[in-house]
Amino acid sequence: MKLHHVGIACEDISATIEELKNTFNITEISDQIFDAEQNATLCMVTLDDGSMLELVAGNVVKTYLKKKIKQYHVCYEVKDIDEQIKRMESAGAVVIRGKRPAKLFGGRHVAFLYTYSIGMVELLEEKIG
């Protein structure tokens, strides 16, 4: 597994981008897209050190925002998403949203699991080729 990005819950992605510009050196901002599979509006922000933040807005993060929680999930890129899901489940993780295509990542599959050690984890299958 390789750390890919940290998901940040937002009420307004554009406003969050402006706030981030005051703190971080941003090198790239993707378009904001709505992903019906995840019922969320998403945007990827790349910082000058190469790290990435996925900004997530919509019903999927409303509970987090009500509790004033901004860090939504940590995403790891994996070679075999099915095998990693099985491995994490056997260690006690609970699947929140099973494997499905993600529009922001060009249709690569993602899955969301809850772990008791670090909270919500998104798995993203590696690019092929």
What's the order of the H and E elements? EHEEEEHEHEEE
Tally of alpha and pi helices: 3
Calculate the mean pLDDT score and round it: 95
Sheet with the most strands? 9 strands, mixed
Q: Work out the radius of gyration.
A: 14 Å
Structural class: alpha+beta
Uncertain spans: none
Structure description:
With about 130 residues, the chain is of the alpha+beta class. The chain is built from three helices and nine strands. Strands 1, 2, 3, 4, 5, 6, 7, 8 and 9 form a nine-stranded mixed beta sheet that branches. The protein is globular, with a radius of gyration of 14 Å.
Ordered list of secondary-structure elements with their pairings:
Layout: E1 2-10, H1 13-21, E2 26-29, E3 33-35, E4 40-47, E5 52-57, H2 62-66, E6 71-78, H3 81-90, E7 94-101, E8 109-115, E9 119-125
Parallel strand pairs: 1-5, 6-9
Antiparallel strand pairs: 1-6, 2-4, 3-4, 4-5, 7-8, 8-9
Keywords summarizing the entry:
129 residues; 47% strand; 9-stranded mixed beta sheet; alpha+beta; 9 strands; globular
In summary, what is this structure?
The chain has 129 residues and is an alpha+beta fold.
